[in-house]
Amino acid sequence: MFVTNRVTNDPRVRREASALARAGHEVVVLGVLEREDDLEVEDLDGVTVRRLRRPSVLGHLAPPRLSPRALVDAARDRGLQRLSAVQPRLYGVLRDVYVGLRYGGELPPDVVALARARAAEAAAGLAVAAAPPPAASSAPPRPPTPRERLEQDLEAITSSAALNVRLARAAAAERADVYHAHDLDTLLAGVLAKRRTGARLVYDFHELYPLQHAEGVKTSVWRGYHEALERRLIGAADALVTVNESLARHNARAYGVLAALPLLNVPVLQPAPRPTLRPGAERVVLYHGGYSPHRGLETLLEAARHLRGARLVMRGVGAFEAELRRLAARAGVADRVTFAPPVPMTELVRSAQEADIGVIPYLPVCVNNYYSLPNKLFEYLMAGLAVVASDVPELRRAVLGHEVGAVYDPRDARGLAAAIDGLVADDRRLEATRRAAFDAARARFNWEVEQQKLLDLYARLAG
Question: Which of 171, 412, 414, 427 is most buried, judging by how many CB atoms fall within 10 Å of its CB?
Fold first, then answer.
């Protein structure tokens, strides 16, 4: 298996890998060294994890000022030389973007502007110098300029390609029977390893990778590159896996391939008492997960102003926490909102049992968010919580179809508050909904049931 993280905190990858290992397969996961205490080789759940260092394709250049000459020199990195030998057409796309020759037949205006600016710098003999570190400030960092965003995206594309070459080289040495690429940022590694060894390839896309950002977050170059990459490589996979039916249908239509196998991000069965309500107790509404923009957390804090008989607990991590605390104070709800410390992945369900309702306030700011079915839904169900979620297709199907809660217009803070209050105000309804969630997790939404799809897939590949 291939991932571009340290593996330890990736529940989907760990569940899949350990299920295959328990079924008798020898499983190796290739990940990335990200922390000083990461081990290069480690046993996790009966699975061998090997972590590689990221290549420093542009590490010798000081961002953000990059000239065309420096970019061309960087492309001579050994990893990209290997890419040019085994995937000349893909390498050509990267080369053409960097030197500003062509991109899809006609360069986007932002690429032309960058190429001209960099050519002028090179002609003038300007040195590539590091920008001075920003002064310490409590103010939010300024957003990158269009030029800075383009430079960041181009560097990310090149670095990702070089990492994929390194992953492919390490994978080919394993002489595996199957290569399993998790997400688009490892698909190139899987294709290269397959072509070198003749093994089978599984492409497991956890999201619609080119469509995962709101408008303006990424440049047209970043999106265009990843759409072209997926379109070109997806047909090389012998099997496709994804996280829900909507993503499977989307990529089947977009690329003319067979629909992927939906493999839900459900947790393993965990013991918990059947939910019962304490009469008269204040009800607890929980959000757990990452703190970042576009997750509707601002709407959730605004909704807290209108809640009756409930308090909100935010349990997460992320740089956006400071802004959320400011928003809570500004909205006058700091006394009704608790920012709880994060817990390890293995403790999420247990800690959630202290709440009554779990909330998923994601905003449909992009296609990927619109079709999302977050892990936290199934963690809430396993903990026996009622669920209040954004009214988007997959969440609506799960929440209303199994009668485990309510949905609301994701941009309507009062609607969110009303959906929560509708459960809080009716003890009988809240208890019935919590028990339905508890039962659904144990009958359907657990890894012991879901993993059989993966095991059947690998049995077919082996046959």
Answer: 171
- Domain spanning 283-443: which superfamily? Glycogen Phosphorylase B; (3.40.50.2000)
* DSSP per-residue codes, 299-315: HHHHHHTT-SSEEEEEE
State CA 250 to chain mean position distance.
17
Beta carbons within 10 angstroms of residue 338's beta carbon: 14
Q: What is the pLDDT of residues 398-416, one digit of tens each?
A: 999 999 999 999 999 999 9
pTM of model > 0.90: no
Q: Are 455 and 20 in contact (CB under 8 A)?
A: yes
CA-based nearest residue to 7, from 27, 30, 26, 23? 30
Cα-based distances in Å from 351 to 297, 341, 382: 20, 11, 11
How many residues are given for the chain? 463
Query: So where are the chain's domains?
Result: 1-123+145-266+447-463, 283-443
Q: Which one, of 19, 7, 11, 44, lies nearest residue 349 by Cα?
A: 11
CATH 3.40.50.150 fits 1-123+145-266+447-463, yes or no: no
Chain centroid to CA 61: how far? 28
CA-to-CA distance for 385 and 392, rounded, in angstroms?
Answer: 20
259-291 tens-digit pLDDT: 999 999 999 999 888 888 887 788 999 999 999
Return d(Cα 49, Cα 42) in angstroms, integer: 5
